[in-house]
Amino acid sequence: MAESKVETAHIAGVASPQSESSGPSELAVATVRTVPIDKAKAQSRTEHDLLGEDDVPANALWGIHTKRAVMNFPITGVPVGHFPEFVRALALVKQAAARANRRLGYLSPEKADAIEAACTQVATDRVYAESFIVDAIQGGAGTSTNMNANEVIANVALRLLGRKPGDYHALHPNDDVNMAQSTNDAYPTALRLAVIFATQPLVRALGDLAYALKGKAVEFADVLKMGRTQLQDAVPMTLGQEFDAFHVTVKEDVARLNEIVSLFREVNLGATAIGTGINADPRYAALAVEELSRLSGQPMVLASNLIEATSDLGAFVLFSGVLKRVAVKLSKICNDLRLLSSGPRTGIGEIRLPAVQAGSSIMPGKVNPVIPEVVNQVAFLVIGHDLTVTMCAEGGQLQLNAFEPTIGYCVLSSLRMLTAAIDTLTKRCVEGIEADRERCRSLVQGSIGLITALAPTLGYEASSRIARRALKEKRSVADLVLEEKLLTEEQLNQLLELEAMTRPARRQGPAPKG
User: Fold this and answer.
1) Given 262, 360, 442, 464, which residue is catalytic?
2) In principle, which of 257, 313, 448, 463 could form an S-S bond with 393, CB 3.0–4.6 Å?
3) Assessment of whether the complete model's pTM goes beyond 0.90
4) Using CA atoms, how far apart are residues 182 and 132, in angstroms rounded to an integer?
5) Who has greater pLDDT, 115 or 369?
6) What domains sit in the chain, N to C, each tagged with a CATH number?
7) Which of the 8 DSSP states describes residue 366?
8) Given a cut of 60, is residue 223 above it in pLDDT?
9) What are the respective helix, strand and coil percentages of the chain, to the nearest 5?
10) Per-residue pLDDT tens for 75-94?
11) CA-to-CA dists, residue 18 to 126, 129, 193, angstroms
């Protein structure tokens, strides 16, 4: 009997973004499930495109265009759904377009309502990100991502209308969800909005880090230590001053980010293919951007020249440069934290970082500065991403840049990694840093750098002689100054007092000659 045959058919499905995987291919490439042939027909639906027909899982919210993209681009294993800000932005762009097309009379109220409701669900419920399965890096200037969004929103809308996924006669991904749009204006608009969304957590994280550093600056305000230049003793300072400098440099980047991210408020929605507005009502672009502003809560503006706005990616180059700046400065701070905590007995050892895990499988008791180290590594990746963004922006030709997906991947990845790294640095390192006050003071007292505080009074030549003697004889500067009777003990103590050494002060002794 036919029912007893062991015939099978292959149903193409796609691994969820949350699936565990041993490599990129398992996330990005369609998996194959074997089921009985009669059951296969019940669990799949047939869709068609310009290349022909193919089956997709019956209940999948994505369709044939998405399936082909998954098969074509098994690149990173990181799907578009990995970036929830991007999914939200794509949904808001489609919702804004539906509202504009409804206002202009091109989209029926029933379809517009269904698309709007679907977009609201996709934008607010992260479960839908699992259906944005195309690889973040793809050919086609983002067409696969746009098609993925069109199909998901269309099929969510069809369900809301009481229809099955794939019933595109009732509501079509391209004709209805993508009405008056092309990938070349919908994708970059969504990407810009996604960057705005993703920058907000980074700004918050930097603010938290700056606050924590300022707290340590206050806590360590009275801890005298040795400042260093070129890894050599320089002049005394306080540990509080050192941490306050960290605070200021982080705070500066908050201001720079808020300035540069505003460039992404200018969008080309309504430009369609190359910026001429083909297939869109002349009133559509302004209406769509108006609706997008209302939906997103962001003051978006329509670019004055849509052809230029469609081909130019200069804003991403500038913004990526600011992310690189953040990364470089963070990495430098982490380098300093690792140096200042080095030892604990044979290094500088002026501060103690929180012990968060064992540092060695062979050396008992060893604790490593793992949190600053991971921030360093994130910084290196962000710096590399910036170079990639630069090359992608330069590599565009004529009226479109086909490499925007890689720009989006790099910028959104950098934003996500930096935010996570900064939060980790704040909570698992900076907030728990302790000062070794005795160590700091002993290093100051034993340093020949103290002579700099005495130079205005003793003069450069006498100070140089004392410094050479101190280094050669391994004696303290203070002892030698008193031995040579260059200053009284009272004068010496006054010059080496905390305030005098770490802030501008009036000269003592004779005025300089000449």
Assistant:
1) 360
2) 313
3) no
4) 18
5) 115
6) 2-179 (1.10.275.10), 184-268+306-437 (1.20.200.10), 446-502 (1.10.40.30)
7) -
8) yes
9) 60, 10, 30
10) 999 999 999 999 999 999 99
11) 12, 10, 24
